[in-house]
Design goal:
10 helices, Dna Ligase, domain 1, 5-stranded mixed sheet, alpha/beta, 6-stranded mixed sheet, 14 strands, Nucleotidyltransferase, domain 5
């Protein structure tokens, strides 16, 4: 589906969120990815049907078109993101076998874990490791090799909706990619170690554990920045717009237990905190030798004053705000983006990086 692009050394990353769209354009300059342009929409209303979490195709197409027009981008080549809550990532183990037999074996095993019929999903897989089975003590059984395989499924209806969006806006699609892969590429790259990425969006928070560059676990909960804003609005008797501005200001101090607004936020933040603890415990039980070294926060709400510091104190673990521009260059006029909107662009940047690597 690549087609002929106006500028082969450029690509757009298009992040379709639950309430808005973010688009980033990267270009290659001496083989270095450079942040060349961006545009975004805020508070565009819900882009999903609440009943079955399917994209509202016409509405998404219209907003993507408006953001494309706003950005005046230099290419039509694009990679689109698929929200993490629409995808299911599972890990299965198979005996070592010829490559030609893996596809059929994966589909057979995947059907045990996937609640949806396989003919209703797009399925992809990748071998992410191998290991030797330990022989049963006291037997002469020879050790056997096993493959660790990551299986990814996405509803075909979601893929069809996004494909229609690209067709309506005459985009040349290099790929569709799940957000967790894009955000890992952007924030961690090839760094060695074990990390958790916490992406706090408007309506959902995604958790991704990455060890030595490979995604090992993903989760998503229906709690995000919008819930924090609603808590502030209800507690202070103000409208959502004012509450959202207060959330983004420097007036809230989560480290101050007597802060009136902080008290309103703690229950929501606590749900995210509890999920981090639960996922960390699950992962450490599965991989006791791979302790999580650092938690990286991203997404618009991650910029909230004292939020990262609060999590670090509660978890007794290094926490930091992710810098999506750390692995790419930026034109001088965009240097202030780091302080303003970079955490919200991490997914879009990761998607565009994928596109620059597509031949």
């Amino acid at each position: 589906m690549l087609g002929i692009f106006s500028r082969k050394n450029r690509c757009l990353g298009i992040d379709v969120g639950t309430t808005g769209v973010k688009i980033v354009e990267l270009k290659l300059d001496n083989n270095m990815p450079i942040f060349a342009n961006y545009a975004l929409s805020y508070d565009s209303g819900s882009l999903l049907q609440s009943r079955d979490l399917e994209f509202l195709g016409d509405q998404v197409s219209e907003i993507v078109g408006a953001v494309l027009k706003q950005g005046k981008f230099g290419t039509k080549k694009a990679v689109l993101g698929i929200p993490g809550f629409l995808a299911l990532i599972s890990f299965i183990e198979l005996p070592e076998m010829p490559q030609s037999e893996i596809e059929q074996a994966v589909r057979f095993e995947a059907s045990k874990y996937i609640p949806t019929p396989l003919d209703e999903v797009s399925l992809g897989w990748e071998v992410v490791g191998s290991f030797q089975d330990k022989p049963v003590e006291g037997t002469q059984t020879r050790q056997s090799s096993k493959l660790q395989i990551m299986v990814v499924t996405v509803p075909k209806s979601a893929v069809a909706s996004l494909t229609e969006v690209t067709r309506n806006n005459r985009l040349d699609v290099a790929a569709l990619e799940i957000e967790s892969f894009a955000i890992t590429r952007c924030l961690i790259g090839n760094d060695r170690g074990t990390f958790m990425i916490v992406n706090i969006g408007a309506k959902a928070t995604d958790f991704t554990i990455v060890s030595d560059g490979v995604i090992r676990m993903t989760r998503s909960v229906d709690v995000g920045g919008a819930e924090i804003s609603r808590s502030i609005a209800g507690g202070l008797g103000i409208d959502l717009q004012r509450a959202d501005k207060l959330k983004k200001s420097s007036q809230i101090d989560l480290m101050n237990k007597g802060d009136r607004t902080a008290l309103l936020i703690y229950p929501v933040v606590g749900m995210i905190l509890d999920e981090i603890k639960r996922i960390r415990e699950l992962y450490h039980k599965k991989s006791p030798l791979k302790k999580i070294e650092k938690i990286i926060f991203t997404g618009g709400t991650s910029k909230m004053n004292s939020l990262v510091k609060y999590f670090a104190g509660e978890l007794s673990l290094e926490c930091q705000l992710g810098n999506p521009l750390a692995r790419i260059g930026a034109e001088k006029k965009y240097e202030k983006v780091i302080e303003e909107v970079a955490p919200e662009l991490a997914v879009a940047i990761g998607l565009a990086l994928r596109g620059l690597g597509e031949k």
